[in-house]
Amino acid sequence: METITIHKAKTQLSRLIERACKGEEIVIARGKQPVVKLVALPTAHPGKRTPGALKGKISYTADAFDPLTDREMKDLGFE
Q1: Least enclosed by CB within 10 Å: which of 4, 15, 56, 68?
Q2: Dihedrals φ, ψ of 6, to 5°?
Q3: Looking at the predicted structure, is the pLDDT value of residue 44 above 70?
Q4: How far is residue 78 from each of residues 42, 65, 71, 75, measured CA to CA in Å?
């Protein structure tokens, strides 16, 4: 884990982000006092998407796509 100054972090932010994305942890210090740690966030979609993965897991009723009634429109705030 490398410690760098705020000034160096500002001038090399893109490179530091790339290093963090590769798993490195970087501590940023104000003078000699560490203040923050730069780490990558976990990815939102770690695996590949598979078409049809939810087939048979999602269902809806026959009237799901019928037009809304006046009362339903009002309840949703569309007067």
Answers
A1: 56
A2: -60, -40
A3: no
A4: 39, 17, 10, 7
Q: Model pTM?
A: 0.53
Cα radius of gyration (the chain): 25
Contact predicate 27/4, CB 8 Å: yes
CATH number of the domain within which 12 lies: 3.40.1620
Q: Which two tokens stand for residue 67?
A: 């037009």
Domain span at residue 12 reads 2-38
CA angle 64, 72, 74 (to 5 degrees): 150
Residue 44 has what DSSP assignment? S
CA 17 from centroid of its chain's CA atoms: 15
pLDDT surpasses 90 at 30 = yes
What is the domain count for the chain?
1
